Amino acid sequence: MQKIITLHDLRFEPYLTKAAILAQVQKMGAAIQKDFQDKKPVFLAVLNGSFIFAADLARACEIDLETTFIKLSSYHGTASTGEIKEVIGLDVDLKNRHVVIVEDIIDSGQTLYEFIPKLEGMGPASISLAVLLLKPDAVKYEFDIPYLGFEIPNKFVVGYGLDYNGLGRNLEEIYQLVE
Ligand code: 5GP
Ligand code: MG
Questions:
Q1: Which ligand does the CA of 135 lie closest to?
Q2: Cα-to-centroid distance, 149 and ligand 1 (Å)
Q3: What is the pLDDT of residues 74-88, one digit of tens each?
């Protein structure tokens, strides 16, 4: 039986089980472990949504690695530059480091599209993407995603770190909006 939940004014139904998520995260971790053995990668987790994914992914990699968290705040620049994401909280020098961006979800892709060039400017040895969820029907840019959890339909999801207006991050499973 499906267990429908309500957050604020919206109803959500179970979509990805805890077991399915963790199995996929273990696979991603194993692949990263193999590719970054002896490279001491820096996991750069994008808050808030990726805090639970980052915790599980880091523990799925049994190699030396660092984990740090950043926030990308959007503010409106001049009309010509449009929206700019400001990087907050970066406390590791990424020069010559192998960086793994840990993102909960790529929807339009705008966030990463704006962030990756900034990161490139910091002189890392490499940049790789570890993304739990991708909405192929929503994404507007092309990304190389070597570590991808799930491709999902273009519907709003919550749980496992993802919220709806603040609620739902602590749900162990991923739920999909009931339309
Ligand atoms: P973008 O459109 O830039 O790829 O996604 C920006 C951010 O929007 C994501 O990092 C995530 O925080 C949020 N987002 C996009 N799609 C969803 C979704 O289905 N559920 C939730 N909870 N957040 C989403
Ligand atoms: Mg995110």
A1: 1
A2: 15
A3: 665 444 455 656 899
